[in-house]
Amino acid sequence: MSLRLRKLALIAHITASVGWMGADAAFLALAVAGLTTQDAQMMQAAYLAMQVAAWYVIVPLSLASLLTGLIQSLGTKWGLLRHYWIVFKLLINVFANVALLIHTQPIGRLARAAAESALAPGALHEARLQLVVAAGGGLLLLLVATTLAVYKPRGLTPYGWRKLQLERIART
Amino acid sequence: MSLPPDRETPPGIPRWVKAFGLIVIGLLLLFVIVHRLGGGFRGHAPLEASFLLWSWE
Question: Quick one: which of A52, A69, A65, A77 has its CA closest to A20?
Answer without folding.
Answer: A65
